Amino acid sequence: MADQQIRSADLLVKTALSSPDTLAELKTNPEETLKKLGAESVQQLPRSIPPPNETTKNAIWLIVVSSFALVLVGAAVVLGKGVFSSAAEGATQLTKTDTILTVFMTVVGFLAGLLSPSPITK
Question: Rounded CA gap, 45 and 5, in Å?
Fold first, then answer.
């Protein structure tokens, strides 16, 4: 953050010294001129991380939704095997049905949330 402030201050000084009109404005109305130059300088600074393009956004969403869909299918398979298979005498239960059901319903809730409209859109 300090490096960005130094770069913006350097840019502010260079912008102020670049034009004689700006120097005259600084002498007559320094507060307003500095505010205007500050806003211009911030706009000229490069962003540290550019926002991703549509292809990258789509790839990220595809990975996220595919992962959750894979977990959904896996939880459904484990839950189905646990419900429809009979346990042998003296066998210990490896997975708890409540835990798998919780995972299943959480993933269903997440995927359903992706389909619901955003509360901030009209």
Answer: 10
Residue 44 has, within 13 A of its CA and on its CB side, a CA count of: 15
Q: How does pLDDT run across 3-29, given as a tens digit for each residue?
A: 555 566 777 777 777 777 877 887 888
Taking the complete model, does pTM exceed 0.70, yes or no?
no
Residue 70 DSSP label: H
Under DSSP, the state recorded for 9 is H
Q: What is the pLDDT of residues 64-84, one digit of tens each?
A: 999 999 999 998 888 888 777
Of 7, 16, 49, nearest to 35 (Cα)?
A: 16
- Indicate the domain borders of the chain: 2-44, 54-115
The reported pLDDT for the residue numbered 1 is 45
Q: How many residues appear in the chain?
A: 122
CA distance 108 to 27: 64
Q: What is the DSSP letter of 118?
A: P
Nearest by Cα to 18 from 37, 44, 5: 37
